[in-house]
Design goal:
This protein is of the alpha/beta class. It has helices spanning 2-26, 104-119, 216-232, 235-243; strands at residues 35-37, 58-61, 65-66, 83-89, 95-101, 122-125, 140-157, 163-178, 185-197. Strand 4 and strand 5 (95-101) form a beta hairpin. Helix 2 (104-119) packs across helix 3 (216-232).
Length: 249
Amino acid sequence: MQPAGRVGRCLLMALTIAALAGCSTVSSTSPMEAASNQTLAFYPGLVKGFEHSYPPRRMLVLAVTDACANNGASSPQDSTPGQQIGVTLDASGAKIQRLYVTDMATTVQKALEQAVQEAGMIASTSAESTYIPQPVDADYVLQSKIVKCWVRKQRVIDNDRNGSWQTVAEFALDATIYKPPFHVPFWQGISSETYSDPPDNPGLIPEDTASIYDEPGEVLSVAFTRSVEGLFKRSDLRSLIIQDRALRH
């Protein structure tokens, strides 16, 4: 009987160790797919203070050039369509997930069109991405390029060994506005935004450090919207257009 008892005790110990190991695995990070399709969305009205502050001029928004497209397309490992716009990392900094979006340039062009209308101007779009100095049915032509688009979601562990997620997103547009038919730029500038969820502020109390968004694509969408709308909140651009005399007849 004693051998059987020893076997039983050994089996019980083995099951206990396995259970503890399982609990340890669950408490670190949840299992994730190797790739995740995210949605880049424009949030109208997020930036305040520029709405209907421009004269009702016509602005043609050209197709957007995506200089970030080389971040990565579909990977042969997961066959995910689109381009990579970020990663999810564990607490040690190891990559556990790749983040993708599709049709980014189209999304940004539509957002620019909507922001032009929010500003109080009349927007139209073109399939062309490069401005050609010639008369067009618009007072201004907006040519733009995405120069930064990245989001990082990482598991962080505090001093009490409590785990949480921190997401940081960056988005930037390089924009040039022309006044047809002139070839010299009427205005040039970069609109860049960084957004953190929860806010990266050591002065906040724990109750104010909870994440607002579930998906990293939502955090990137905030930075994206702020960049697009922030372009038209620029006081130098607004003053220039207000003071300008339209040439179109």
